[in-house]
Amino acid sequence: MPNEISRRETLRRGLTATGLLAMAVPDWAIPALAQGERAIAFTDVPDTYSPGDTTTRIRSLDIRTIDGPITPRDKFFAIQHYGRPEIAESAHRLKITGLVDKETELSMAELKAMPATELTAGYECSGNSGRIFQGLASNGRWTGVRLSDVLKNIGVKPKAREVIFFGADRKEENVGFRQQTFAVEQQFGRSMSLENAMRPSPLLAYAMNGEPLTKEQGFPLRLVMPGWYGVANVKWLAEIQLQQDRYVGNFQARWYRTMMGEKEGDQVQSVETEVTRMQLKSVVARVSTEGSAHKILGFVLNDGTPLSSVEVKIDDGPWQRADFDPSNTEFSWKLFSFRWEGATPGEHTIVSRATDVDGMVQPVEEDLALKQTFLEHNAQFPRKVMVT
Ligand SMILES: Nc1nc2c(c(=O)[nH]1)N[C@H]1C(S)=C(S)[C@@H](COP(=O)(O)O)O[C@H]1N2
Ligand SMILES: [Mo]
Hints:
Layout (H helix, E strand, L loop, with lengths): L1 H21 L15 E2 L53 E6 L5 E4 H6 L3 E8 L12 E10 H8 L7 E16 L2 E14 H4 L5 E6 L2 E2 L9 E3 L12 E7 L6 H5 L2 E8 L2 E8 L6 E10 L2 E9 L5 E8 L5 E2 L1 E2 L9 E7 L5 E11 L26 E5 L1
Parallel strand pairs: 2-11
Antiparallel strand pairs: 1-14, 2-3, 4-5, 5-8, 6-7, 6-11, 8-9, 8-10, 12-13, 14-15, 15-19, 16-17, 16-20, 18-19, 20-21
This protein binds the ligand Nc1nc2c(c(=O)[nH]1)N[C@H]1C(S)=C(S)[C@@H](COP(=O)(O)O)O[C@H]1N2 and molybdenum atom.
């Protein structure tokens, strides 16, 4: 009875999606450290570790300090290629050019006068990994206008296929062609198909967590592309250009590609893909203790596909299901917690793995052995803690 099966399948998916929200909240699932609760030390993080701040090129999030679903704006990770341009909001214009009915410039006041949407979205830089203790990830509550509304208002010509987002940040770079090298001014740009741009979720965001974007977050305007890796979220957004051809800018066509070997019999073929939707990843972020009980807290990031489970394994023990935080939403990071009973003094290894409703399971390091580039590293991340 194929109908029956597909109905059950639909029910299961529906339940998983809403189940994330409706699940009973264990009292210890609340992320902030309770009275008398203290964090215990990871022995895999050196004492010299520093997450950086706004004076450094990269500010990462010390994930051991996660104390709620939303990352505060002064802790939200920040990374970019060309530095952080200073833009005056009153002078800023968003240009919309190319295959539109009428090329347009919108002021921030005009954008803010349009119906606003709020959406919680978490993302990580595609270069995030255990190398930097998974600190290039955060979760924010964004306010802005839907990209699709802006494009529909302006009118898109039928030939348009590609939507390019340019930041105001520019830099001269050496571009090679055969034996020659040219110094060319490059503007940070990323593109996507018109189909993806017209989805309901992408936002032209001007606020995070109820406050204006900070300079490092792309003040006064940025794209937020829920479910995609950080690089899609173009900051200091200055121009949206629609065209028919694929965009082949540096950060689209040369950077942010993944090369992965795929086995065909004895042969390994290298397959190159674009960095777009986030690959399923979970990370243990914090371990704390209160009396004799221990709690493990972590987060999951993916493209918004509902999750079926996140599990935790301690040393050589079995995989055990963790609980999802009730604050999780479709595009937020998904916090999870696990009550660890009977922790014995000494060093322990803790690892988590997430599974989605399509049966995708977070890979282990060995599964990624054929990956040739470092981006999109979503392997399970075993962590070491010291119980005293
Ligand atoms: N204009 C512009 N936008 C950009 C970048 C950039 O260099 N310039 N870097 C991208 C990358 S690689 C990432 S991971 C995210 C980081 O966003 P955040 O700094 O708000 O965390 O911004 C993206 N948007
Ligand atoms: Mo990134």
